[in-house]
Amino acid sequence: MDHASAPDRHWRGRLQEPREIDELLAGPIDQALGPFWKTAVRKYTKCNLKYGKDKLVALWGIAKLLRDMLQTEYGEGLWEENLQDQLAWRVEECRPGERPNESTSEFLERDIPSWSWASVDGIVVVADRLSDQSHYKVTDHDGKPLSFDLKGAKRLVWATSKRVAADAPSMPPRGISDSGPELQRRSKELAKEGHSASDEKSFHQINGPVPVDRNDQPEFYSKSIRIQGHVGHGQLQRDSTRKRWLLQVAGVTDVDVVAFPDIVPALEDSSAKSTYFVVLAAKQVIKPPELNIVGTSSPETQTGGRTLAKIDESTVTGGGEDHVDYAGHGILMKYTSSHHFCRTGAFKFRNASDESFKRLQKTANWDKLSPEQYHPGRGRKFWLD
Where in the sequence does UniProt note compositional bias of the Basic and acidic residues kind (predicted)? Predict the structure, then answer.
């Protein structure tokens, strides 16, 4: 127990130390914050709490300190920065039974959205950030980075430039308060998209900002995350030999898409095999010709295929024609109603050809969606509950 709580004590001490505003948080011998948070979540989700709804309470003390220092918003166990990667967490070993956040049991029930790891039981593995420069990532309905709809949060709008990002100087963020006009604008957007303020639990949005105590856990206007991406359709299949789950997608034959269901699917029910999915983020991996050696065993083969190896960057050394493939991650989903989905799992892929990646980026039933709900390049607008 002492070993498990060591990272907690270490960073509580570091975060509470007085420091200048520009002083680096992590020293040369400190653990990086990313691995620290990943370890903290793993340790806490390994514990068996009597009441599942207490999971987020247990971590709030640490999360608050990190939020205040890192100046990024936090909600329901996830960080807003690179939210598309945060959503791709997975359960280390899924269990049979009902999903806890859909249960009526006194010990299992919890008012936590499906996109939060706190909505399930079992050891949780926080997803690594895919890349500093993603080839593709989902956006919100306005083409902006994914964000939480938090009460009292100060939103940031980043200045844009037509210059190449690497050549453009960094621009300071412009704060937008949670003002009445801004909230009215958001309410009109929801109405235009076919969602009333009551549907989004957002009636208070049109009545001005609501003061909040930043020492308390964050409160949401709506816990639904607005996402625009290519929602595809596939089938779950159990690979008994390698003890893993696969996501089968029509036309994707040159790569294994390894799935991580949140709970064990009931395969005797044909509907349980069917799943929607969305790629949250992906990147191009450029390999020099000398690295394209036929017959080389993959990391999955070397480790028995239980997990996917961490996605690493490749370096181009020049000479000949480079080979490009794709790596990425996303989530499995089920449709509920009115363009709303719930999460049911996660998946990863690597070494996907250009053709396979395009097939992973096909929106199912796109021809039945209105122009307001679907764009050929950006995909379908939906809400993740």
Answer: 183-203
